[in-house]
Every structure is written in structure tokens, then in C-alpha cells.
Amino acid sequence: MANWIKIKNNVKVDLGKIPIISVNNLRDEVKSIGKRPVGFFGKDWGFGCVRLFIVLADDANSEFFLSSVVFSGNDKSYESLTQDIPAFHIFEREFYEQFGIEPLNHPWLKPVRINQDKYPFFEMTGEEVHQVAVGPIHAGVIEPGHFRFMCNGESVYHLEIMLGYQHRGIEEMMLKNPSNQLAESINGDSVIAYNTAYSQTMEALKGIEISNKAQLIRKAALEMERAAIHIGDMGAIAGDIAYLMGASVFGATRTLVINTMLEICGSRFGRGLVTVGGVNYDIPDDVLNRALETLNKVSKDVDRMTNTMLKNSTVMSRLEKTGTVSTEKAAEIGLVGMAARASGVELDSRFDYPDKWMSELGFERKPFKGIGDVNSRFKLRYKEVKESISMVKKILAKLKDYKDEPIIAEGVNNKLSSDSFVISVVEGWRGEIVHIAMTDINRKISKYKIKDPSFNNWYGLGLAVRNNGISDFPLCNKSFNLSYSGNDL
Question: Exposed end of the chain (fewer CB within 10 Å): N or C?
């Protein structure tokens, strides 16, 4: 382990302490650690050099392994890690796309975001084989993405997903003008999670400790966001199988949750609530009490509608054994968050990298036994809605103990630490959201790296639809509900 250092979530380290390993030893070094990747990205290191940073998650011990490799002007390749650890496939593809350093013998070296020219689609031949192309323009307000199905009749042999149509340049914008407003705009259905990850990153670099009150308000908001989106997705799944009662009831129930967020901070999606140093809004007693009443109603309504829906044989015929990703395959390709847990891979950074409240409030991990099909992803959403509501009720009750504390800490205008590295991982409703920031000698952000759970999970959707009917794709797609903007950045 001499070539790696161990770091903690939301704790900065000096850049000078990050080891550099030989490019020839990279593959063996990563294999010897044997942990999953959460960061694998390059930075222009000057003098024609590129420095690759590797962050591996040791979930069982709540820490990360960190190391790096420097590629000089003559180093334009290395032996691919994906051959041995398939979860690296998307990370290596992104690194190659951005810096031109080739992972030799990568089995699927295709563009991640630069796709507008000649994308090398997988091809199949045969008299009964045909292709179906969908997108990039979709109906309504869906973001752009292209889906290419290889079919035999109605059965899907292979789905290839081509993204990269957004070209927003979020990471570059973070270098020029980092802000909470930019962070919460990265992914509009994960405002609280993204804003929390950004704020924790900045707080670590500025040496700011936020109050207990602010911590609890953030935590309650994050669980409300999780509950609201899950309820909405349960309604969308119902809508995709034409179960209109479920679509209507879940849609109305979700509104109760986001309207509670509106009452707290003036935005149904939590914009403007989280800020560096704490939160911008307190929760008065009358708002808190109404929130508790609303959440009790939400819990009962979700119970009633879920139980009714799952007793319907037509519903179950569409959900069960549709779009299955096995436990082994989910672990192998590196699924994270809800998609992983539905397949039996227990990754949840709330418990893997817990804050003090997880133990103080008695929150315990409750594993989910699923087979990775649409039914599992639906039921997991229901389970997490119930758990999130229970968590919010405990958090709001605890909040009363810190009534006199400030909502924003002192030192918000402190300068960033120089030559530092920090990682912040927050469990959004899709899964782990990763923000990594590095600063230079002038205390300026020199690199800002973002990873949305969709970055890991889009390939999982492609695997899920194999051997299913093409008419099941909308249902499979909604059961994952992945982000285009979170991938494209």
C-alpha cells in the first residue's frame, strides 16, 4: 500500500502527499487494492504532462484509496484496467476521450460525450435482424439521447446508448465561477444532493464547520428529495403500463412533498436552501409541524396505493422479471445507488460513509432482497420512500434541540486552502454523487471533477433490456430513470 494514501469523505489532503506510481505498474497496483472506482480522471500537469488521479472506494471501512500516474509527452497509452475490472470501462473511455491516452486492449473503447461524427455502433447481421433508432429528439421535455436497438422481431438483442448532446461544460464553469447556484443546476431533480456535495467540498477547503441545525436541515431536505422523486417515479412506472390510477395518485402524492419544500425555502425542488456554510432558511415551528402532518399523510397514501397496485395481476405481469440485471452483473459493471441495491449490491454512501447523525438518530441499513428487475426497482423505491419519511420525522424532532443555533457558520468568506485535494460523496436518490476539487498554490480551484450515478448506470440499462420485448423499453428506462445532464456535464 506504499503507493497509495487513505483519505476520508469531506476531509482535505495536501496534493504533495498524493503518491505517483509508474504507468507500467498501474494495472497491478489497482488490482492489488481490489476496490471499486469512484474517481479516474486526468489533469493537465504542465510541460506536456497529464496526471491521472485514481480514487478507489473502500466502502467497508468508510475511506478511499488515492494515488496518481504522470504521463509524460511520450506516454500515450497504458494497459487497460477494464479487462480485469469491467467497472472501469466508462472511466477509461472518458479519460481517453479527454486526453488521448489510450487504454490498450479496452474491450469497448467508444466515445462518452463526443459523438456527433461517426459513432461506431455495434452491428449485427442476419435475415431477421433489424435496427430501431430512437432519439436524440424525444417527445415532451425529455433531454436528448440516442438509443439504437438491435432486434430480432420484437426481441432486443442489444441496446446501444449514445449521449453527449448537452455540451454544457459544467466542470470548466466550476473553475471560472464556482457557486451554489451552478451546483444546484447541474441536475434539476437532485438539487439538494448536488448542492450539498458542492458545499461540503468548499467547506472542507475553507475549514468551515457548519452548525448542528444546518446539518439536520440539509439531511431532512435530502431525504425529502429522495422521497419525492421516488414517489414521482413510481407514478411514472404506473403510467408506462397504463395503470392510470397509480399514475394519478402517486403524482398527486409527490406534489405534497415538494410543496412542503416550497414552504420551507420558496422552491419546490429546494433551490436556494443549501449554501456554503449551512443553509439559507430555518424551519419555523409552524412549518415544521405542518411538514410532519403532511408526511404522515404521504406515508399512508403511498402505502395504500402501492398495496393496491401490487395486488393487480396485470401490473405484476408487466413488472416481474422485466429488465433484469443480476447481482453478479451489477457488481461487475459497477452499478451504484438504487439500481445496484435493487440487484442485491448493497452500496449506500449514507451508511458506507456516514455522518454522526446516522448513529445518533439510530438509522440502520436495511438490506433489500431483489432480483434486479423492474418489480425490484419499484419495490425498492417504495421501501426507500417509507424509510426517508421515517428519517425526516426523526431529524425534525431532533432539530428542536438546536433551536438557538445559527443556520450559517462564520468563516464563509475564508480563502480556499492551497495545493489541496478533497472528495465529497453524497447519496442522491439515484446513488452516489461525487464531487472532487483540487486547488493550486494561489488558492484557486484548478480542477473540479463531478460524477453522477448515471455515469455508472447507463450501461446497466443497456444490459437490462436484452432479451426483452422492445415495447418494454419505456418501462425499463423509467425504472432506472437515469440522467442525461448528469452524464453529459
Answer: N
